[in-house]
Q: What sequence folds into this?
């Protein structure tokens, strides 16, 4: 990712540092906020996100847990129901499969099942995505699972600033929010506000304006789409990039506005294509005011319908790369 | 606390057990007459457990409950009219018709909710106790669950977290002998489910779950320990559900003799005999009548209430504002 010069009130931080800063600011501002997860204390988190927080806030509020994802999320649900603001770290988003009952049957539904009489303000942070050679059980992109569940909100930050601002908004939110961070982005740097500015949930961001084509990309595909747009510009193709940032609730209007201008849409996700999240965006566009503006079929560039493999050349082949986005975008513009 | 010697306590315990019994009989009747929708899990025969346990609690304490949770709700102080209205799919029900029997909660009385998922409430109770710890209070959380729950992963994870963090939780196993049709004796190799406590380094005790005094004594001891910061405990209460698991149950897995033998051990009849030296026969009769009157009033008010409104169906999917 490009590192822009820091604007006033910002500094350059990594994505992981930005997440840590959000946690620290939230814990400083609100004593109800506490963290729980595996190896988040002295170890500092499997990806180093929580770092020194245990030394700053103590073991009660930066709570190391046994390897017990279902218990961890269940305990967070109970704490959230009784006045606390737990922020859970699930070490790899794949391990949410171990905790699905508490996420889907409990956290997501309690507010509704009780007719609005209780809230479950919990945040579940989990790193997803491939690219680390960790193979099929440590590399998935599971956002569609969560986005399909009424009662959950789903966030996928793609920049350090958003990693901070969206997390702060998620902690404020009275609903369970799943924040899917990306392992490959943790070391990326960018300008991050010093203050605790929130990025409201449900607002997309136009990362790059474009005239010929709208690329909507999520997670790590956002920086890849931006790199692709840069190359396409060299070929005389003006590709815009929209980052939904929040998958649920989705800011459909920002996407539609862009499609109305460009008339072409390429959807890019790392997750497997079948029943993937971007299919929902395709359906939303097909049923919208933007439909009549389309000059080309909607393109969908996704991960292959395979588990993420181990061998680096296989892993790379399983998910979209910058050159794949360039090729698909070029085809859409040239053929239509 | 002796539940039988003090007249006010004896009256309260007896009236509450009768209220649970009459409430569930009314539900059974409404269902049979086609006036109630969905399915229903009745705890008739198990009334001594919630009543004995909740008498060990005070305001501010939490419970989590099960799909067979009407008794826990009533014993923790829920309003019968709002419960019945929920079962009759009314806007005035606890959940405005969104939850039904398996999701009644009453956060105001510390009831964090029944649960349609077996063992679902176990880690939630642990979390409520963690919340107490972090806020610096002295409340305890009681997690009710059945014998069927103790083989779920959620049970082991919730219990272990409470144990390693020494949280103020009392795990109350209502062993009613069957997880739907699976006998508890075929679902675990231990003779007493309370033996499972040893694996988590906490005390476990098995008591007669048809004796409210025995349940109360065991739970009160565990609550006292928990409040004093000595961590969780497990109480197994042996009891029996007289009715089927739910409305689909044809009782193919147990015998009439077995059911009759347990009906002979009716916890309410036993408690009436136990309090005979404290309450007069007219006082005992009055407890029964109060229960009947309260349930009738709840049914009447629920029938008169407006139906749950589909116009606002999507309102409570997400909470608004800051929590």
A:
């Amino acid at each position: 990712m490009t590192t822009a010069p820091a604007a006033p009130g910002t500094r350059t931080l990594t994505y992981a540092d930005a997440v840590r800063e959000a946690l620290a600011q939230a814990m400083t501002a609100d004593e109800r906020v506490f963290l729980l997860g595996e190896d988040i204390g002295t170890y500092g988190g499997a990806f180093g996100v929580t770092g020194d927080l245990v030394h700053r806030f103590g073991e009660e509020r930066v709570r190391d847990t046994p390897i017990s994802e279902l218990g961890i999320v269940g305990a967070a649900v109970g704490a959230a129901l009784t006045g606390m603001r737990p922020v859970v770290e699930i070490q790899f988003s794949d391990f949410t499969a171990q905790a699905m009952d508490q996420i889907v049957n409990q956290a997501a539904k309690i507010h509704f099942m009780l007719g609005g009489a209780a809230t479950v303000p919990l945040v579940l942070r989990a790193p997803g995505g491939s690219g680390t050679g960790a193979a099929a059980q440590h590399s998935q992109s599971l956002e569609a699972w969560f986005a399909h569940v009424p009662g959950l909100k789903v966030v996928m930050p793609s920049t350090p600033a958003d990693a901070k601002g969206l997390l702060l908004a998620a902690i404020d939110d009275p609903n369970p929010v799943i924040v899917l961070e990306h392992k490959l982005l943790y070391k990326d740097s960018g300008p991050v506000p010093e203050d605790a500015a929130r990025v409201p949930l449900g607002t997309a961001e136009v990362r790059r304006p474009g005239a010929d084509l709208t690329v909507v990309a999520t997670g790590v595909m956002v920086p890849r789409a931006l790199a692709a747009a840069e190359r396409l510009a060299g070929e005389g193709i003006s590709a815009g990039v929209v980052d939904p940032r929040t998958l649920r609730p989705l800011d459909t209007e920002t996407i539609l506005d862009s499609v109305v201008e460009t008339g072409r849409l390429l959807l890019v996700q790392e997750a497997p294509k079948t029943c993937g999240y971007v299919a929902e965006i395709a359906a939303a566009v097909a049923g919208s005011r933007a439909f009549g503006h389309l000059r080309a079929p909607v393109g969908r560039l996704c991960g292959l319908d395979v588990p993420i493999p181990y061998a680096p050349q296989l892993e790379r082949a399983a998910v979209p790369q910058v050159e794949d986005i360039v090729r698909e975008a070029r085809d859409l513009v040239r053929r239509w | 606390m002796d539940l039988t010697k003090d007249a006010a306590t004896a009256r309260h315990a007896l009236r509450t057990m009768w209220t649970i019994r009459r409430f569930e009989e009314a539900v059974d009747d409404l269902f049979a007459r086609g006036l109630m929708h969905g399915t229903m899990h009745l705890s008739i025969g198990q009334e001594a457990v919630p009543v004995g346990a909740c008498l060990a609690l005070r305001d501010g304490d939490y419970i989590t409950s099960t799909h067979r949770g009407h008794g826990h709700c009533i014993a923790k102080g829920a309003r019968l009219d709002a419960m019945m209205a929920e079962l009759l799919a009314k806007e005035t029900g606890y959940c405005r018709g969104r939850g039904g029997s398996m999701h009644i909660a009453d956060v105001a009385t510390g009831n964090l909710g029944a649960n349609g998922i077996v063992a679902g409430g176990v880690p939630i109770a642990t979390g409520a106790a963690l919340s107490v710890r972090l806020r610096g209070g002295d409340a305890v959380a009681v997690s009710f669950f059945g014998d069927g729950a103790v083989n779920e992963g959620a049970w082991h994870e919730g219990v272990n977290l409470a144990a390693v963090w020494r949280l103020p939780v009392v795990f109350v196993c209502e062993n009613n002998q069957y997880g739907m049709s699976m006998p508890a004796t075929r679902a675990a190799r231990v003779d007493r489910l309370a033996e499972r406590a040893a694996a988590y380094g906490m005390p476990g005790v098995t008591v007669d779950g048809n004796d409210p005094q025995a349940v109360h004594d065991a739970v009160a001891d565990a609550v006292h320990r928990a409040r004093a910061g000595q961590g969780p405990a497990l109480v197994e209460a042996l009891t029996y559900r007289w009715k089927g698991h739910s409305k689909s149950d044809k009782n193919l897995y147990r015998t009439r003799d077995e059911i009759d033998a347990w009906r002979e051990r009716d916890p309410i009849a036993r408690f009436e005999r136990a309090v005979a030296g404290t309450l007069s026969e007219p006082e005992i009769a009055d407890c029964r009548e109060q229960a009947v009157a309260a349930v009738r009033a709840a049914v009447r008010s629920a029938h008169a209430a407006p139906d749950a409104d589909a116009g606002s169906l999507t309102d409570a999917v997400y909470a608004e504002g800051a929590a």
User: Anything to note?
Assistant: The mean pLDDT of chain B is 96. Chain B has eleven helices and seven strands.
